[in-house]
Each structure stands twice: as structure tokens, then as C-alpha cells.
Amino acid sequence: MDFSEQELKTAYRTMRHMRNFDEIGRREFMAGTLPGFMHMYCGEEAIGAGVCAHLSDEDYIASTHRGHGHCIAKGCAIEDMALEIFCRQDGLCHGKGGSMHIADLKKGMLGANAIVGGSAPLAVGAALTAKTRGTDKVSIAFIGDGASNQGTVFEAMNLAVVLKLPAIFVYENNGYAEMTGVDYHCGSGDIAARAGAFGMPAHKVDGTDYFAVYEAMAEATQHARSGKGPVSIECIAPRWYGHFEGDPQSYRTKEEIADLEKNRDPILLFRDRVIAETGLTQSDFDAIDAESLEHVEKAMAAAKAAPQPEPADLLTDVYEVYD
Amino acid sequence: MDFSEQELKTAYRTMRHMRNFDEIGRREFMAGTLPGFMHMYCGEEAIGAGVCAHLSDEDYIASTHRGHGHCIAKGCAIEDMALEIFCRQDGLCHGKGGSMHIADLKKGMLGANAIVGGSAPLAVGAALTAKTRGTDKVSIAFIGDGASNQGTVFEAMNLAVVLKLPAIFVYENNGYAEMTGVDYHCGSGDIAARAGAFGMPAHKVDGTDYFAVYEAMAEATQHARSGKGPVSIECIAPRWYGHFEGDPQSYRTKEEIADLEKNRDPILLFRDRVIAETGLTQSDFDAIDAESLEHVEKAMAAAKAAPQPEPADLLTDVYEVYD
Amino acid sequence: MPQMTMREAINHAMRLEMRRDPEVILIGEDVAGGRGCPVDDVEAAGGVMGVTAGLFNEFGEARVIDTPITESAIMGAAAGAALTGMRPIAELMFADFFGVCFDQLYNQAAKFRYMFGGQQGAAMVVRTMIGAGMGSGPQHSQAIYPIFAHIPGLKVVLPSCAYDAKGLLIQSIRDNDPVIFCEHKMLYGDKDEVPEESYQIPLGQARVVREGSDVTVVALGRMVKLAVEAAEALEEKGISTAVIDPRTISPLDVDTILDSVEETGRVVVVDEATPMCSMASEIASMIVSDGFSSLRAPVKKVTAPHTPVPASPVLEAEYAPTAARISAAIESVYAYR
Amino acid sequence: MPQMTMREAINHAMRLEMRRDPEVILIGEDVAGGRGCPVDDVEAAGGVMGVTAGLFNEFGEARVIDTPITESAIMGAAAGAALTGMRPIAELMFADFFGVCFDQLYNQAAKFRYMFGGQQGAAMVVRTMIGAGMGSGPQHSQAIYPIFAHIPGLKVVLPSCAYDAKGLLIQSIRDNDPVIFCEHKMLYGDKDEVPEESYQIPLGQARVVREGSDVTVVALGRMVKLAVEAAEALEEKGISTAVIDPRTISPLDVDTILDSVEETGRVVVVDEATPMCSMASEIASMIVSDGFSSLRAPVKKVTAPHTPVPASPVLEAEYAPTAARISAAIESVYAYR
Ligand SMILES: Cc1ncc(C[n+]2csc(CCOP(=O)(O)OP(=O)(O)O)c2C)c(N)n1
Ligand SMILES: Cc1ncc(C[n+]2csc(CCOP(=O)(O)OP(=O)(O)O)c2C)c(N)n1
Ligand SMILES: [Mg+2]
Ligand SMILES: [Mg+2]
């Protein structure tokens, strides 16, 4: 295996953080302490982790409504994210954005986005910045299977091809757009092929396999960083939970979900393979698990206790100056 | 040749009408008598004619800013069209639509459209009507090469595939979107392949060859009418004139245009082939030419002399009732 | 008379119209719910808010049509179907999403009748969800209807209670012009006496929710009940406040408003939308133009501020007008000399 | 001082800013013109109206970027580039096309600063063409800026002459918030004295085009010169008319308007946009709220009717306000007792 122990531990910790963040967030949501919507990333962790492993703070990502995992992978502090999903004054967006708008520009995280397909054109814009400035930075758009049908996304792909921009379109095919299955909503059923027809390399990988995502992304970044234009990667990784918390999921079977948890847990798959192929042991991972759980619990508890925004904040930051 | 003489004469007359309508319209535009914009269809006549040869008044077409040819092929009366491009009171739209909005609902002509890509979703809607009512009618969207990049068009294709609608996407690849070449603006350069990736049969034909368009459309309508879902056809037929009258065309060479007029005139190509392969003669076609010219000149002259709308018309037909 | 929530009233209106007229179809994201999914015989969830629940089961997939996430194609498909004779109801899940699809409504459907010289309009309804109060954040909470009202060719309906919602929706479905029907997400649970049978409320007729002779309050959508609350509280202080609910903002029932202003000479307009170029501005400007001679005080607008809707529930509570702010405005115009 | 058309003034403003700041780029359909075409060394046509002519030749393809027909991607690319530090100028060829791409402006660029808690705004300009008068028909002639002004987070500029256009555009490019810069197609050819050098006009400062003590006319965009024409004609009849050009409608210079109203007590607002939820309504409602004590007559709005723009030039001439209609309105508020 071509990874250092450090790299493997980091990847694992990232995914475990994601899992804990959303599971604890869910607990809080069900307890009524967390406002807004809660979209779980469970089952898809390997995508965000495998993709962002190739990025520095100077690279860009533009995310979705299901964005917590992307934020964590891109290096946002768990504490600041927790404050934001609780909409507290010291959150990354001072409580004005909330779960669906976490952004951290110092980290190259250009925002979760509550408009399906909204972030693809923005990612293309960040790629334009990279190209215009002559850097080798890349810009990633995360796009759901549902979002893959949105006109903005097709336009973004075409423009990236035409301008040969260092943009990478990462499709997170988790099987559903809200309650609607991908086999129904996606014309050809083949998201990657559709992207490929725009004239860019198009990969399709198992999104529950960290290493598969990592490999595809290694190729993609090399291509994009060297000025050859955009790439797309379709990652298939069914979600474990409903569209958002509160979705009764009457449209899928309990067996489907049980099977996913048992056989397609990206974190377990990672762990098993790494233990089989490297010197890392169960206890190495158990230690990370414990540390991560404590870390996330603490961040969430602190966030829950943190001060709310002041009423006057309602009126600030609409413009820099306006008069 | 599998066509009756009547069919061949009709096809030729349709194309000749289109040519005359736009050439005379252009003359009037340059003389300052015609308001608005003038988008010439010259060079592309075989597309509209070949496509609409398969349609009855109960089938639908949704057109573009370059829509005169489509209207003629779909059976709009030349007289009523002429009145409309002169924005006269008795025009098809009583002068409120003008050249870019000619519509004739009795003929299944759902409107030219001044929004690029605007008509594709509308055509899908008409196809939905056909399917919901259980008829075997089809609905055609005409789409330029430039329009092929618009998000609305991709969405329309996908929805038509998902709902298995009797929609036919006819791409008129005339080489340019305004001043921008198709090789530049279309990511893959292959419009048909992009359509095919949505999961529908995708044809690509020489759009200056009436018979090629006719054949592709025969297959397409059979497919769509029998409930098998949408089809796309890319027709390649470079335009002879600028984007609109007034475009100096500094971006292309005089030789390119001369070559088109000489070697890729769809009307001449049709005529030569039919004379070679059937009993029809030069003089048959000359007769149609003369008759068409007279017909169109007369319609244009009548339109130019016809009464303008009344000022009170400004306020009518915004709503059926509004109070 | 049975009690119904606004959610049920809206569902019921669609059900009755779909039974009555086979040309009425429903199209949108998850309006059935669960299409293409492993469980086949699923009870139609009917969208994220359950407003269309059960319609798929009654009317089947030919008339209750789930779509991909493709708002332009949904609106365009509805417009094209309407142009060819159907009566589609298209759902725009959150009105905030109009920005990805507005061309098909504003340049196409809204203009057909006019630009085609009266040949045909688009008899379609767009049902859409508006408003703040659920902690849904800046892109899912807007009251964007002033933009719809600005557009000639569109009609815009803004029901404030279940009874009105049912009658107005039935009317909208039968109307031959495109209607944007704005449902406030915080009103879905509100109950009202609603007849089982079909009835229509004409578009362009305001409802005088409350008579009053000192001050006229014109309130829109969710603001109506807050205005009534404020008016009732002020009764004790001896201020008699009329509350008018226009119910449809395009067309706007100018006469009912002006009649009341003639009596009171004092006006407060309450609108959850942001203030610039809003219905609050429209109504105030109509009054200063056509009711000036009656006016005895400045027209006060109580609206959201010129800001996006914040995600924080604490800030969101400051965002939309409250009964307290409405009361203060009523008192101030009442006291004006 | 040289004479420049508004077309030249706008071109010049971009040229100066692009020379000054390498982060300023221009992106849109045919802003270069001729890309991907057989003739390689073509002089950049600079769009259908020639407004960006020559910029491609000076600044090259990295900074003057032709695009496919893809407004959502253009606006999104500009927003994303702005969010990452560039200063893009994006061209929306006709403002009428906002309906296919507005989400990227109104939900994205306009809200970045607020919903990201002040981290960063989108320092971008959208240049776009508005207005009736060229016989361009219902989908290419609209004055759709009230919709832009409604949106918190956007600024909206509406120059009425070449001098203002240059100074306002330079200011807009340097502004750190998204600015929609609305160019009236019928003003491109209008000439003015315009300095060669760079200068800025602050956003939010109206221009008093003409002093007057009897009636205040607030006129927008192309309406300014018609208002001046009307005012001059009425001088003979002894009516002294002030004409105010807000120049930017968001932010709106409320003080300059109210100062004049304090003197005159009589107001006409002239706006080419359709009337409902328009800037005419906004300005009238602002006056009845904040200038009520000065008002001595109804505020008259002279606007387009609530209809689409007809293609027929004969009807189009009836559509937009004329000097005659403005005069009549001035006389009527002047005569009001
Ligand atoms: C433009 C737009 N349309 C619809 C929605 C409502 N919506 C939110 S998430 C969602 C499903 C998205 O599906 P997908 O892209 O597959 O992402 P996933 O939720 O599966 O991660 C929908 C329809 C939205 N937010 N924006
Ligand atoms: C949404 C939109 N964007 C831009 C335009 C301006 N415009 C009108 S025609 C045209 C070029 C269209 O090219 P194509 O689709 O190839 O059609 P053609 O003119 O070649 O027939 C453009 C950019 C428009 N009318 N609508
Ligand atoms: Mg999904
Ligand atoms: Mg073309």
C-alpha cells in the first residue's frame, strides 16, 4: 500500500469525524436543539475524504446541502462548524448561514449550498481564478445524483471544457434525490457517461472505497493541475439515512439499509483493508475512534452552550458599504 | 426515389418559399421598412422542410429566433406571417410578437422564441400533452448549435427521456452562435453524442440534404409515435448570412460563404438530385420558383400596405380577465 | 363544517379539481414521491411537506408526475402543456428556486397570450412554498412574491388561511392565465372550517378580515393573523383597526383598500417580503396616488429588513414583522397629527 | 473635454480599469466576438452592440473571455471568481435573459457576504442591456431592474448619460459588492462631454439635473432626458420643475429626493419599468412614509403599462412614457388643490 501510516490515520480520522459529527448532530436534531435541516453524510464519507486528500488550503471546493463531510475533509475546524450548525454567534458564518451554508474561505471551502446544482458554476469560477492567475490550483464541485440533472451543472461542465479550466466535477451518486431514485430521475442512468460526452475524462468508482476515490482523484488532479482541463468522477455510495432527518423513507426497504451498514460502510471497509495490508492494528483505529468521539462531543457541547447572535447582527454584512 | 412527384414539388416549394421570404424580408429590412431583427434561414431550408414533412397540424413544433422557415414548413400562411413580421394589426400575433414570436396554434406552431433554449422545455410540455391524452402526436424542438449549450435544453432532454415523451430534438448546427464558432462553444464538438448520452437515439445528418433529414426524421417519428420516447437529430447546415442583418461577419471569410452558396445550397442540391433521379425537369422547378416569388412578393407588399395596430391594442390580451 | 389544515385544504382542492377535469395534471419534484425506488407500492409521500400526499395513489403516474431536479423543464413542460390545452399544476418546491427557472414563467408562460396576439394563454398554476420561520436559512425562506407581482401576465395568490386557500386554488386551476399560488410554510398546519364541497373565491377580491374606523391595516399572507392579533390588543386602547387581506396581490383589489382608507385616513401595510419594490411599497404608492385626499398620516410599512433571511432562529425571529411591531406602527399613525 | 457616446464611455471605463487592475476580467457571450471562427486575427467585434469592441485585442483571451450561450455558468463563474478574489465584469447581453440565470446572482453572489458571516462578498459587476425603443419585442426590451433592486445584497446602477456611465462603472468595478449595471440600449449613441481620465461617481448619490421649486420629478435612466424636456417646456407656463436622477436605485439617495419634496410638496416619478412593485412605487411609497408632512398633492407615477413590450413600433411608442405624458402629470400635480 502506497500510503504512510500517517496518511492512513489521517484519512481514517477524517471519515470518523464526519460520521461522529453527523451522528451527534442527528441526536441533537432529534432532541430539538439543532435548528434547520439535518442532511446526513453517513455512507458517503470516503468520497469527501478521498477527494480532499489531494487538496491544499489553496485549492477550492464548492459543496452541497449535504456538506458537513466536505467541510471536515477540507480542514474546517470541527468547533467552528459545530457553532455554525447551532447558528451561534462565533460560528464560521456567525450563525447566519447554518448547516446548509457553512463556508470557510481561508480553507478554500466556498460554501455548502442549499440550491441543488448551485455550486457547480461557482466552482468553475474558482477554477477560472486559478487559471487566470496562472497557479496550479484546482477547484472541485461536489454534485449529487439528483443535482446532475440540473441545467446549471451541465452548463458548468461545458464552460469548463470550453475554457479548459482546472475544475473537477465529483458526482456523489447516493442513489436518491430526496425520495426519487436515480434509476428513475437520470435519463441514461449513467452520470459519468453524460459527463464524458461533454468532452472530458470521466471516471466512475465505488464511492464507498476510499482507495478507489483516491486513485481517481489522483489522476484527475494531475490532469487538471497540468492545464489539460476538467475531469469528472462519479462516485457511487448509497446513503444510509433519509434525505433529511424526518424522512420516513417509506420508499426503501429496511433490508437495503441494513445491508449497507453491514457491507458498505466506507469506514469499516477502509479499516479492514488497511489492517489486512499494513502494520496498523485494531487498537490504532480504536484509539482514533475514541479520540474523535471525544473531540466531536466536546465541540458540540461547547457549541450548544455558546452565545446566540445579537439582534443587531440581523442588519450587518449585507453590503460592505451601502448608502 | 420513394417520393411522389407531388411530394417532391411540395418540398421544393416549401424551401423556395423560405428562401424568398427571407431574401425579400432582408431587402425590406435593409430598406428600413421592416422593424426588429432579421435572422436569415438561408442554407438551412432542408432542415425545416425535411422535418415538417412528417408532421400534421396536430403535431407540434417549438421554434427559435430564426423561425420563419419553420413556420412556413409547418403550414403558416405566408400572408399572415408577412403581416406579422411587419407588425401589422392582422398579423398572426396582431403585431405584438413580430418576427421572433410568430405563433400559429391551429397549425401546431407553438411560437418562435427570442430566448435561446427557451423552446425546448415548451416542446417537452407539448409532448406531455400528447402522451397524457394518449394520442400518437409528436412534438419537435428546433435548437441551434449555440442553444445546445443552454441548461434548459439539457433539462428538457433529460425530462423527455425520464417520462418517455414523444419529443424530437432537432439540432440545427449552422456553425455559429452569433459570432462564436461551434468548434469553440460546444465542449465535445459533438452535439449528437451529447444528446445520445442522455439515453435517446441520436442521429447526425447533413442538414443541407433534404433526403437525409427526411430519412432521419422518418425513423424519429416512428420511434416517438410508437411510445418509445424521445429522439434527437443533429443537422449540419452552415448559414449563409450573418447572425442577423447588420452583422458584418468579420469572423468568417468570403470564400467560406461563396463555397456554401455554390456547393451546399439545399435547394439546388435537391433540385439537381430530383432531376437526375425522377421525371421532374428544370422547367417544373422554374415554374415553382416563379410562382413562389410572386406569391411571397405579393404577401410582403400587401403586408407593408396593411394597417398598423391601434394604440388601444397595447392594453389587450395581457390576461383573459384581470380585476 | 369540518376542520382542515391549510395543507389538507390545498390537497383537497387539487383532488376535487383532478376528479372533475381529466386535463388537470400535477408535475414536480416528489409530488408523488418514491418513484424509481425499490419499494413499488409505496403510499405517495406527496413532497417534503406532504401537501400532495395520496394524489399519486388516486390518480396514478400519468397525472401525478414525479420529475428529476429540473425546475426549468418542469415549468416549461407545464407551460407547453398548457399552451396545448392541458391544465397543469406545477410545483416549485420552494419559491426561492425561481432563480433557476424563471424564464419559462416570466418570458414564456406569462407572455404567451400577449405576444401571440390573444391566440391562447397558459392555463397553469405554479404552487410554491414561501416564507420565513422554520429555520431554513437564506435560500429556503424568502417571500419572493413581489417579483412575481411585477410581471405582467402572471397572477399571484397569497392565501392566509385554509378556507381561502381551498377556494382560491380551485379558482386558480380554472383560471385561463398563469397563476403563482404562494403557500406559506408556517401556515400549513393552521386549521380552519373548510367545507367538504367545492367552492371558488374570485381572484382580485380582498377580504375585510376585521372592520375598523381609525386605522386601516393591509396585511399579506402570514401577516394577516399577526395584524388581527395587534388590532385586537389595540381595541382595549380604544383604537378601532380594520384589517384587510388582499388574498391576491395580482390582480390587487384596490377598491376595498381605498374604501377603508377613505374612512380611516391612516394606513399600515404589513408584508413579510423585503421592502424595496415590494407589495408594501406598491400598496402605499397606490394609496398616495389614488387615496391622497383621504390620507391623514404617513403610510407606514412594516416589513422584513433589506437583508437575506438569517439561518439563526434568534435572528429569524427579528426578521419578519411581529404583532408588537405592527401594534407600534398602528399606534404611531393613529397618534399622528 | 472630448465628446463620447455612452457606448464609448462604458468601453473606456472598462479599458481603464483593466489597465489598472489585472484582476479585472470580462466574461460573456461575444464580448470578444469571433472565437473559434475561421478568421483568426479578427478585430474583436465586442458584442452585438459593439460596447466591448477592441478589449479583446488589448487584453487578450485570458481576460476577455467569450463563452458559449450559458448565462447561468457565466454568472456563476463570475461569482465564483469574485469569491476567490478576482473582479469580474460579466455581461448579460439583454437583461431580459436574467430568468435563465438569476439564481447565481440573487441566491449566490448577493448573499455570500451575509450568509458567510461577512467573510467575503462578490466584487463583481454584471453589465446588462435594458429598455424598449428598438423594436426588439417582448423578450428583448424589458426594464427589469425593479427585480434587481428588490434583492438585498445587490446594488443596481442605472446611468442616464455618458458622463455618469463612465464614473459609475469605474466605481462599480471597484466596489466590493455585486453591482448590476443597467445600460439602456437607446442611450448607447447619446453623446456627452466625458473626461479622458479616470473618475468615480459614488453609488447612492443622486444628481439634481435641474433645480425647480414647484414640482419634483424623479426620473430614471432614459426617462431623465424626457423629464428635462417636459420641464423645460413647462418653464414657459411658469411651472418650475426640479428633475432628479437617482443614478443608482439600490442604494437609493433618499435625502436628495426628500429635500426637493420638502420644497415643492408635489411629485411625479417617471419610470420605464412596468408599474407593479417598481421603483416608481418604491419612491412614491418612500415619500408618503418619510415626506408626508411636505406633500401637497398625490404622487403621480408615469410608467409603462402593466403589459409586455409589444413588438410593433407603433405600439412600442405608446408603451414607454413620453415627454407629453410627463408634462401632463407635472401639470396635474401642480394644479392639485
Ligand atoms: C434548485 C433546487 N431544487 C430543489 C431543491 C430541493 N432539494 C434539496 S436536496 C434535494 C435532493 C438532492 O438530491 P442529490 O443531488 O442527489 O443530493 P443528495 O441529497 O442525495 O445528497 C432536493 C430536490 C433545492 N434545494 N434546490
Ligand atoms: C438566453 C439567451 N441568451 C442569449 C441570447 C442572444 N442570442 C440570440 S441568438 C443567439 C445565438 C444563437 O445561436 P444558435 O443557437 O446557434 O442559433 P442560430 O442563431 O445559429 O440559428 C444569441 C446568443 C438570447 N436571445 N437568449
Ligand atoms: Mg442523491
Ligand atoms: Mg447556430
From TrEMBL, chains A, B:
Domain Dehydrogenase E1 component: residue ranges: 14-311
Biological process according to GO: pyruvate decarboxylation to acetyl-CoA
UniProt keyword Cytoplasm present: no
Cofactors, names only: thiamine diphosphate
One Pfam family recorded for the sequence: E1_dh
GO molecular function terms attached to this record: pyruvate dehydrogenase (acetyl-transferring) activity
Gene3D superfamilies per record: 3.40.50.970
UniProt keyword terms in alphabetical order: Oxidoreductase, Thiamine pyrophosphate
Full protein name: Acetoin:2,6-dichlorophenolindophenol oxidoreductase alpha subunit
Species of the source: Luminiphilus syltensis NOR5-1B
UniProtKB/TrEMBL annotation, chains C, D:
Occurrences of domain Transketolase-like pyrimidine-binding (ranges): 4-190
Keyword Phosphoprotein: no
Residues of the signal peptide: none
Gene3D superfamilies: 3.40.50.920, 3.40.50.970
CDD domains: TPP_PYR_E1-PDHc-beta_like (cd07036)
Molecular function via GO: oxidoreductase activity
Keyword field: Oxidoreductase, Thiamine pyrophosphate
NCBIfam families for the chain: PRK09212.1
Its biological purpose: The branched-chain alpha-keto dehydrogenase complex catalyzes the overall conversion of alpha-keto acids to acyl-CoA and CO(2). It contains multiple copies of three enzymatic components: branched-chain alpha-keto acid decarboxylase (E1), lipoamide acyltransferase (E2) and lipoamide dehydrogenase (E3).
Name of protein: 2-oxoisovalerate dehydrogenase subunit beta
Organism encoding this protein: Luminiphilus syltensis NOR5-1B
Organism phylogeny: Bacteria, Pseudomonadati, Pseudomonadota, Gammaproteobacteria, Cellvibrionales
